[in-house]
Amino acid sequence: MSENEVNSAIASSWLDEPLSEEKNIEMSLLLTVLDEHFGYSFRYYSKNSLARSFARACSKFGLEHMSDLIPILLHQPRRLDEVIDAITVNYTQLYREPKSWLSFAQSILPRLYSYPSLNIWIAGCSTGEEIYSLMILLDEHNLLGRSNITATDINPWVLETAASGVLSQSLNQKDRDAYQQSGGKENLDDYFVGGRELITPLKRSLESVTFKVHDLCQGPPMEGMHLVLCRNVLIYFTREKQKQVVMDLENSLVPLGYCCLGQKERFMQHQGGLKPLVETQGWYKRFR
């Protein structure tokens, strides 16, 4: 999926266009199968977002109706991961939203040196580009060695890719520019062999990352985190579920811990102890 396609999906995810009665019935049946038989609950995703996701899955399997996915799930359960992979949106890139990363490098990282160790949760890590982006900046600031990173996603396929240390696509100029705009100190190419695979020291650090299948909608959240990144994930949820997940993210943090949300998620109001840092792009701090 291209960036334009993803942005288009995001931009239209809040449209309130009603689905037809037939599509509502199909969606309800499919959601029931995914939830009751396989433990994947997508009921808290916005309906229009789900309709697009199911349409994408139907296209992948050459099906006409979303209900046609049900026999595949029930009679070919080994293909569950393929269906989940088709339903979930896995678009990511190195140093996506570089202004946010620059805020991290300039305003957040200097505040982390006082901790003897750092617990970090990357929620919705997708194929790993967010993990690699973070690891490189931590390494450049001599904080990677004391960092304990947990990376989670609902999709087990993308977790395997993330753990491999190999980019989904080779480095391009957009990646290099984003890295420099994010406060990178070196040459991004020096961190990847052949433009795709993490260099050996970073790959060794990647082996210490804990990868877990985790559903933000069903929890439970992680605990004792100094830093949480959950960027461009909440946009696919209903507004009520967004509020609950943000509360879970807050509760996962230690007092004075930091959380980062995506650019499309910064409009959300939260009445708890998680407050925006005005000098940053998308960063929040737990004040209670």
TrEMBL record:
Name used for this protein in its record: CheR-type methyltransferase domain-containing protein
Domain CheR-type methyltransferase: 26-288
Entries under InterPro entries matching the protein: Bact_Chemotaxis_MeTrfase, CheR_C, CheR_MeTrfase, SAM-dependent_MTases_sf
